[in-house]
């Protein structure tokens, strides 16, 4: 299911996604740069709301073609 919003509890680092079937899907590709270098450590185990994680450099393009089709490359 998609996630409508995520509430972050900054005291214990937990997050609680709220399922909502009409919510938009957000794709987080990365950040614009990091002086500490590539982030190699992830939370373990991987949260249920996280579909994929990869520590890598690169770029991507997301083209929204119409309301039912998008091209990610």
Topology (elements, then pairings):
Elements: E1 3-9, E2 14-19, E3 62-66, E4 69-72
Can you give a write-up of this model?
GO terms for molecular function: acid phosphatase activity. By secondary structure, the chain is mostly beta strands. It has one domain. It has strands spanning about 5-10, 15-20, 60-65, 70. The strands form two sheets. It has a two-stranded antiparallel ribbon. It has a two-stranded antiparallel ribbon with strand order 3-4. It is flat, with a radius of gyration of 15 Å. The protein starts with a strand and ends with a strand. Residues about 1-5 have low confidence and may be disordered.
- Write down the overall geometry: flat
Task: Please state the average pLDDT score.
Answer: 72
Uncertain spans: 1-5
Strand order of the largest sheet: 1-2
The helix-strand sequence is EEEE
What brief labels describe this structure?
73 residues; mainly beta; two-stranded antiparallel ribbon; 0% helix; flat; disordered N terminus
């Amino acid at each position: 299911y998609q996630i409508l919003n995520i509430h972050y509890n900054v005291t214990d680092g937990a997050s609680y996604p709220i399922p909502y079937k009409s919510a938009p899907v957000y794709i987080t590709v990365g950040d614009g740069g990091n002086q500490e270098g590539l982030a190699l450590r992830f939370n373990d185990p991987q949260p249920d709301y996280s579909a994929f994680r990869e520590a890598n450099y690169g770029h991507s393009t997301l083209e929204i073609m119409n309301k039912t089709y998008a091209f990610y490359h």
